[in-house]
Write a structure and sequence with these properties.
Length: 81
């Protein structure tokens, strides 16, 4: 059925258009972790959140992935599983 989790590293907003395709690849109760460089003007948490919402995903957790990377956990809303 596909992986339960996908780790998706981005360095700008353009790759976020792939979230729809990645969503089809995960299990219905799976997650996509999007990881991006901290402190960049062109890619921020809200950039990822807005792209996720536009593609039918919701964010449920933000983390400091490392000293230089942040991460956002995206899932398919429960009502759509």
């Amino acid at each position: 059925k596909g992986p339960g989790r996908i780790l998706f590293a981005v360095d700008g907003p353009a790759p976020l258009k792939r979230l729809t395709t990645l969503q089809r690849s995960i299990q219905r109760n799976g997650a996509i972790w999007v990881v991006w460089p901290k402190g960049q003007a062109h890619i921020k948490e809200d950039t990822i959140r807005n792209a996720a919402i536009a593609q039918g995903l919701v964010d449920i957790k933000v983390i400091a992935f490392s000293e230089t990377l942040s991460g956002l956990k995206l899932v398919i809303p429960v009502a759509k599983r």
